[in-house]
Write a structure and sequence with these properties.
Helix content: 10-25%
Order of helices and strands: EEEHEEEEHEEEEHEEE
CATH topology of the largest domain: 2,3-Dihydroxybiphenyl 1,2-Dioxygenase, domain 1
Number of helices: 3
Oligomer: single chain
Shape: globular
Largest sheet: 8 strands, mixed
Distance between the termini: 24 Å
Strand content: 35-45%
Structural class: alpha+beta
Radius of gyration: 17 Å
Number of domains: 2
Length: 205
């Protein structure tokens, strides 16, 4: 478990299947078994069926119809990340896909989200709160790369965080750049090859 002030903010574990390391996006649900059935009905695939994680909760691993992998989590004794949206913690999840319309329809149907659509960037809302996003796959991504979710971690200083990551063996994939009035971000690959992003938020919530 990755802890901040003694509270869980993320976790790291051994890979359960062949392939490169990756961060997994978890979506909280009220009923894992019912949601797994909804995923299948909406054209997704349940890769690892619902299972108990001791007394912490119940989970399943799935992929959407465009190939993006994610997990669903039904809280037991653990809700998951207990601190978010501040330096050192998860602050954003973003799906990149070549089939945006298909992906948006899937997450709306299965999770009751509302997609706020635009040509360049689409945000998922739950009620009046924005909880994630979906964007077209960047043109420079090789054709064989499937859809993927990117985890963004908040940092106090984007350039300083990137320099620290590089000193620890990370590779800069996209150097620090501005994201409009949202903040300043960078994409990196850790020493094991797992992709992630860091962002200095201008107005963290």
């Amino acid at each position: 478990m990755c802890l901040l002030r003694g509270k869980p903010v993320a976790a790291i574990g051994p890979a359960m299947n062949p392939g490169p390391p990756a961060w997994m996006t978890y979506i909280t649900v009220a009923d894992v078994d019912a949601t797994a059935a909804a995923i299948t009905a909406a054209g997704g695939t349940v890769v690892a069926p619902p299972m108990d994680v001791m007394t912490a909760g119940r989970m399943a691993v799935a992929s959407d119809p465009t190939g993006g992998f994610f997990s669903i989590w039904q809280a037991g004794e653990s809700i998951g990340a207990e601190i978010v949206n501040e330096p050192g913690t998860l602050c954003w999840n973003e799906l990149s896909t070549r089939e945006v319309d298909t992906a948006l329809a899937f997450y709306e149907e299965v999770f009751g989200l509302v997609a706020v659509r635009s040509p360049e960037y689409n945000e998922f809302k739950l009620g009046d709160r924005t909880v994630g996003a979906c964007m077209p796959m960047p043109a420079e991504v090789p054709a064989e790369v499937p859809s993927y979710w990117t985890a963004y971690f908040a940092v106090e200083d984007c350039e300083a965080a990137v320099a620290k990551a590089e000193s620890l063996g990370a590779t800069v994939v996209v150097p620090p750049m501005d994201a409009g009035d949202v903040g300043r971000f960078s994409f990196l690959s850790d020493p094991m090859g797992a992709m992630f992003a860091v962002i200095k938020l201008n107005n963290p919530e």
